[in-house]
Amino acid sequence: MDHAHTFDGWLFDMDGTLLTSIASVERVWSDWARRNGIEVESFLKRIHGIQAVEVVRRENLPGLDPQVEAEQLAQAELDDLEGTQAIAGAAAFLASLPPERWAIVTSAHRRLALARLQAVGLPLPGVLICAEDVARSKPAPDGFLLGAKRLGVDPKRCVVFEDSPAGIAAGQAAGATVIVVDATHELVWPGEHIVIRDYHDPRVKEGLTSAAL
Question: In the CATH scheme, what is the code of domain 9-20+84-208?
């Protein structure tokens, strides 16, 4: 990573980026898919990084209220935190950043986001942008733009950490630099982004923590 590249803000997705709740998410959504006659394997590939209400809406199933379904799914995920873990090195990296300069931007609802962060012992950010805070889900840039605004920084001088194609697209659309965390996915990522396995990657410590503060 270029040491001359400096950032004013750090914007983190949550699931798959700071922590992994993939076991819980896939249990809950697999059950939902089976109940609604959806083929599970392909369905699970298209849910990550997107608000639950939007996932349900995109399936266009007759007789289902997307908002009601999303609320029920959120409660099911709240009731099932088993297997949720922090991504390696995430806690130490967050602790190394100025607390007023980083935010979490997640497609989860606030109650669920707080429960997952607390379950794995990660620090709570001063700025937490959740599903209910923006009208448009990723890949729209709304969440990252709002996160940067609340930090008081230009989104073009932010680095976004993401793990899903929708999130990567959202970070790019916001004008930020995007770093891909692939701790929970084995995909070929679009673009020429830096890809890290976790926060022990030396490029994180040497490049990002040396940014101008």
Answer: 3.40.50.1000
* Angle between helix 66-78 and helix 22-35 axes, rounded to 10 deg: 140
Catalytic residue among 15, 142, 163, 201: 15
| Structure tokens belonging to residue 77 | 């995920």
- 157: tokens are 């001088």
Q: Among the options 8, 13, 163, 201, which is catalytic?
A: 13
Query: Known catalytic residue: 13?
Result: yes
| Tens of each residue's pLDDT in the chain, 213 residues | 443 357 899 999 999 999 998 888 899 999 999 999 999 999 998 887 788 899 999 999 999 999 999 999 989 999 999 999 999 999 999 999 999 999 999 999 999 999 999 999 999 999 999 999 999 989 999 999 999 999 999 999 999 999 988 999 999 999 999 999 988 876 666 667 888 999 999 888 655 544 433
Residue 31 appears among annotated catalytic residues:
no
